[in-house]
Design brief:
Layout (H helix, E strand, L loop, with lengths): L1 H47 L7 E7 L5 E5 L5 H7 L23 E4 L9 E2 L5 E2 L6 E2 L5 H4 L7 H14 L16 H7 L3 E2 L1
Parallel strand pairs: 1-3, 6-7
Antiparallel strand pairs: 1-2, 4-5
Keywords: Membrane, Transmembrane, Transmembrane helix
GO molecular function, one term: DNA binding
InterPro entries: Competence_ComEA_HhH, Endo/Exo/Phosphatase_dom_1, Hlx-hairpin-Hlx_DNA-bd_motif, RuvA_2-like, Soluble_ligand-bd
Length: about 200
């Protein structure tokens, strides 16, 4: 009888011990999970903060005294970057540079030169021409000249000039298709009348 009672007591104690250890293990895992998740939130918050940068970088080239990459505030304008680059040179075409334009990170500002009319274009024969036939030079034409092209109105002419100021001179006439509003069909109508 005593032996049976001891066995029963041993089984009850063992059951209590198993339940207690299971409860403790479960509680331990939840505590660790809470600590990890709160640490993850803190880490995620730390990663978000650097995105709110108060500095941007802008590249300026062309007719300025010190071309290069400059650090500026996000609300700076083109004239601020021109000042950082030592100002415009005497050869700069001021009418083709929008000094009041807002800037953005990674922007390229190219200040064009005023080219002498006599050597703007040289043909392969060695003769010097101001225009090849009656083609419009998309790198140097002003708004009114661009407006004469088929399918180009004042708004699109302004976009071409803005693209040129932001990205620099057109390296080929095909690059004109990168300007918003100039698709393949519109480009086909004007390609015989333009040069770069």
């Amino acid at each position: 009888m005593v032996e049976q009672r001891n066995k029963l007591l041993f089984i009850v104690m063992l059951a209590i011990l198993i339940v207690a250890s299971s409860f403790y293990s479960f509680w331990q895992k939840n505590t660790v999970a809470e600590v990890v998740s709160s640490d993850e939130v803190a880490v995620k918050n730390d990663f978000r903060q650097p995105e709110q940068s108060d500095e941007i970088f802008v590249y300026i080239s062309g007719a300025v005294h010190k071309p290069g990459v400059f650090k500026a505030s996000p609300n700076a304008r083109v004239f601020d970057i021109v000042a950082m680059a030592g100002g415009l040179t005497d050869e700069a075409d001021r009418a083709k540079t929008n000094l009041a334009q807002s800037i953005k990170d990674g922007m390229h500002i190219h200040v064009v030169d005023m080219l002498p009319v006599s050597n703007e274009h040289s043909a392969t024969t060695g003769t010097t021409k101001t225009k090849v036939g009656n083609k419009v030079n998309i790198n140097h034409a002003d708004k009114s000249e661009l407006d004469t092209l088929p399918g180009v109105g004042p708004a699109l002419a302004e976009r071409i000039i803005e693209y040129r100021q932001t990205n620099g001179s057109f390296t080929s006439i095909d690059e004109l298709k990168n300007v918003p509003g100039i698709g393949s069909s519109k480009f086909e109508k004007m390609k015989e009348k333009i040069t770069n």
